Amino acid sequence: MSKHDRIFIAGHRGMVGSAIVRKLRERGYTNLITRTRTELNLVQQADVRNFFESEGIDQVYLAAAKVGGILANSNSPAEFIYQNVLIQANVIHEAYRAGVKRLLFLGSSCIYPRHAPQPIREESLLSGPLEPTNRAYAVAKIAGIEMCASYNRQFDMRFLAAMPTNLYGTGDHYNLQDSHVIPALILKMHEAKLSGANNVTVWGTGAPRREFLCSEDAADACIFLINLPDPQLDRLVAADHSFPVVNVGSGEDLTIRELAELIADVVGFAGKRVFDDSKPDGTPRKLLDITRLTAFGWKSFTPLREGLRITYQDFLDRQKPAPPAGSTVPSGAGLHRAGK
Fold this sequence. Notes:
It is a single chain. The protein is of the alpha/beta class. The protein has 11 helices and 12 strands. The strands form 3 sheets. The protein has a 6-stranded parallel β-sheet with strand order 2-1-3-4-5-9, sandwiched between helices. Strands 6, 8, 10 and 12 form a 4-stranded mixed β-sheet that branches. Strand 4, helix 5 and strand 5 (about 160-165) form a beta-alpha-beta unit. The longest helix has 21 residues, at about 75-95. The chain is globular. It starts with 6 loop residues before the first strand and ends in a 21-residue tail after the last helix. About 45% of the residues are buried.
């Protein structure tokens, strides 16, 4: 892809979308197109059609989605399936109509069956029942994958779906009602440290195993994939009966109990972790097979402890009050990003 192509990043204010924007700018891409939700409502087909017809987009990163943790998925399944299906359908279809050269759809590892063989290969898609706690979200993402496959097959498009593992990092969302596990634990342990609490409650037994990837690494993988040479990309998108899916992960996992210990160490919380086994564990294990991605020459570069340190520093920076109007901020202040 040319450095002067017009690139639309849908969801540019989200954790992964914002990381994609940063990395594209670092690499000299000059025509990045972004819209806030008030400027472009991706749920509205007419608005999305008008946008693509007027902007001359060459490349799309579809990172916009309604996301949340176990509690949010369990409480609001209708919102998760409705909003995500409409966002994906509108962007993918209008990208096709506008002749977009390449599109990368960002999915989730929750698309795979609850008891898929570990590590999970892309071929496991649709091979068994999904995890009930996030089934609505997973079905929406599977619909997006099928759309990419269908448009590739019928219209000879180059639409690829990247399935990242559990993500965390700079710009994450911290809210105990709908956050994922890492931001929820960072928030809980930070507040417990400040209040002098003796313990922090962690949902579930602590036994499930999870894989995590820093958002900066995920963004790097997305840019890598969408810029594969034509022959390599065509191998992924042109197959008649398989899905254009690539797993994106670190290739390593740990238990939620081990994760809680690591976060406590990074945050500096010295109290106990109490595991509430009345709360759901979710999928017993979720580790992705990343052979397909690494075969092209990509691998993650941010160790989990370092990524958590960067994430916690970003959390602390966002707690600080904004400087008074007219004051200056030293160059580089507040920038804590992982690099290769």
